[in-house]
Amino acid sequence: MFSTNAISDMAIDLAGSSHLDYSPTVQVIAIPCSSGINPTWITHAVEAGFDGVFVAADGGECAYIPDCTARTGRLVEQAQSLLTKSGSDARRVKMGALCSVCSDAFVNHMKQFGRELEELRATAAAA
């Protein structure tokens, strides 16, 4: 998971301090702004063996640029396109907005994305 240190990291910390339950396999990489992610970082993570990559966008709270979510969305689409071209499922990359107090939303995103990734694994194993 790519998370911004000014906004979504706080929601993740709040989830932990509130003892909210989410998968211990979630690994967080803090970045200043989600629109600064290089799509090849995402594809590298998938190629390196990660089941999926979640990108937490700041939404309207970004301190750096007003169109952060739109830019981040385009970067995620580029990463999905690169994955498709390399034969991977684009659904292994997902984006969602997380505000600084959205600990429940973070947990829900992680649980839902985990279920979606499990379905993808099951479908691939059955094929």
Question: Can you tell me about this structure?
Answer:
The protein is α/β, with parallel strands linked by helices. It has one domain. The protein is 48% helix and 13% strand. It is built from four helices and four strands. The protein has helices at residues 8-17, 39-47, 68-85, 103-126, and strands at residues 2-4, 29-31, 53-57, 93-97. It has a two-stranded parallel sheet. Strands 3-4 form a two-stranded parallel ribbon. Helix 3 (68-85) links the parallel strand 3 (53-57) and strand 4 (93-97). Helix 1 (8-17) packs across helix 4 and helix 2 (39-47) packs across helix 3 (68-85). It is globular. The relative contact order is 0.22. The model has no long low-confidence stretch (mean pLDDT 90).
Topology of this protein?
Elements: E1 2-4, H1 8-17, E2 29-31, H2 39-47, E3 53-57, H3 68-85, E4 93-97, H4 103-126
Parallel strand pairs: 1-2, 3-4
Helix pairs in contact: 1-4, 2-3
Mean of the pLDDT scores? 90
Q: Helical stretch count?
A: 4
What Rg do the Cα atoms give?
14 Å
What is the straight-line distance between the termini? 28 Å
Percent range for helical residues? 40-55%
* Number of DSSP strand runs: 4
Tell me the count of domains: 1
Give the uncertain stretches in residue-range form: none
Beta-strand fraction estimate: 5-15%
Major sheet characteristics? 2 strands, parallel
Strand order of the largest sheet: 1-2
**Order of helix and strand elements from N to C terminus:** EHEHEHEH
Structural class category:
alpha/beta
Note the overall shape: globular
